[in-house]
Design brief:
Blueprint lengths: L3 H8 L3 E2 L4 E2 L6 E7 L2 E8 L5 H16 L4 E8 L2 H6 L19 E7 L6 H14 L4 E5 L7 H4 L7 E3 L2 E3 L1 E3 L2 E5 L14 H13 L9 E5 L6 H9 L4 E6 L3 H16 L3 E8 L3 E2 L6 E2 L6 H9 L3 E5 L21 H18 L1
Helix pairs in contact: 4-10, 6-7, 8-9
């Protein structure tokens, strides 16, 4: 039978990551509730919302399940400064935040009204194209539930974590941070909104970018849900690119994302019409697989321009330098992305 004493005994070997002492020893277990074989814990640690907390989470769950629990629920809170000092911890120095006043980085949010329109493909290719044009570029995979940037860019390594600082991975000259780096075995994300918002905030405030960025691309979740709204509210000023397909329904839904941008005082840079057509390599003829006109109608409704019309096509796969969604700069579609990136630079820096 599960008891509080049995659970505390199971947790003795779980160490609080910042003071390196048993979570039980430092009185970090604030509440234990047992209902049949379901256990919920309230845990106090010295630094919440960090990668170390995420790693500790799994240790806590494993320990309690090892004691016989079928399901474990966790709530975290931050210890007071007095408690932290008592246990030998200290407030870590914070890296420069991208949200600080005076930061000159330009934020470019890439969004869409619905999934499946190629928003992330546009994000990673815009980022790499800007880097090829000599800009210092980062990308945040803010599509928390549908993170895909690391796989698209062929990234296998993980970011280094030192204390509270997260060091992004670099690929094709682009510094990359993604929720996908911090998830084990492609597990689904089942956190609630506040925890997701805190993790997103960490991406802005606790990532040690290698140098001052010219542009930070944000691959937002599709639609106008809580996570997308959190990002809009975090950034007092941002540029925005809206991705759609030529299909009227996709363009109609994408208009909602545009309205959100306008209501949060973000500037819409333009529209990208993805999957605009298929061009036959044999005849050179264009086939409009998903119809025509969606991008034009959306641009007219939002009073903006079309930045690019991207055809259907597959990047050439290099097994030695694998990046399944990145187009080479001399590829026909890669050239479209390069022209699009130059348009973005001209719009912002004019």
């Amino acid at each position: 039978m599960l008891t509080q004493e049995k659970i505390l005994d199971a947790l003795k070997n779980v160490k609080e990551p910042f003071v390196n002492k048993s979570i039980v020893e430092i009185d970090g277990i604030r509440e234990i509730n047992i209902k049949e074989n379901l256990v919920s814990l309230k845990v106090a640690i010295t630094q919440v919302g960090t990668q170390e907390q995420m790693m500790m989470q799994q240790q806590l769950v494993n320990a309690v399940k090892g004691a016989g629990a079928e399901s474990v629920g966790l709530r975290f809170e931050q210890m007071t400064d007095e408690e932290i000092a008592k246990h030998g911890g200290e407030k870590g120095s914070q890296p420069k935040s991208l949200l600080d006043e005076g930061v000159k980085t330009t934020f470019i949010a890439v969004t869409s009204g619905k999934g499946g329109v190629g928003k992330s493909t546009v994000s990673v290719n815009l980022a790499t194209s800007l880097a090829r044009l000599g800009k210092k570029v980062g990308i945040i995979d803010a599509d928390i539930y549908g993170f895909s940037v690391p796989d698209m860019m062929g990234i296998e390594e993980k970011p280094k974590v030192k204390g509270e600082r997260i060091f992004p991975v670099e690929r094709f000259g682009v510094q990359v941070i993604s929720m996908g780096f911090f998830v084990q075995d492609n597990s689904p994300i089942i956190w609630r909104g506040p925890m997701l918002g805190k993790m997103l905030n960490n991406f802005f405030t606790q990532v040690e970018w290698n140098e001052d960025l010219d542009y930070l691309i944000l691959d937002l979740p599709p639609g106008t849900g809580d996570v997308a709204l959190d990002v809009h509210q975090m950034l007092p000023s941002s540029k925005e690119i809206i991705v759609t397909t030529p299909h009227p329904t996709a363009a109609f839904v994408a208009a909602r994302a545009g309205v959100m941008a306008l209501k949060t005082d973000h500037e819409i840079l333009g529209i990208v019409e993805n999957m605009a057509y298929f061009k036959s390599q044999l005849t050179g003829e264009k086939e409009f697989v998903f119809g025509q006109g969606g991008g034009e109608r959306l641009a007219k409704e939002l009073k903006t321009d079309i930045l690019a019309q991207i055809p259907l096509g597959q990047p050439e796969i290099d097994e030695k330098d694998f990046a399944p969604s990145i187009y080479a700069p001399d590829h026909s579609i890669g050239q479209i992305y390069m022209k699009m990136a130059q348009k973005v630079i001209d719009k912002i820096e004019e």
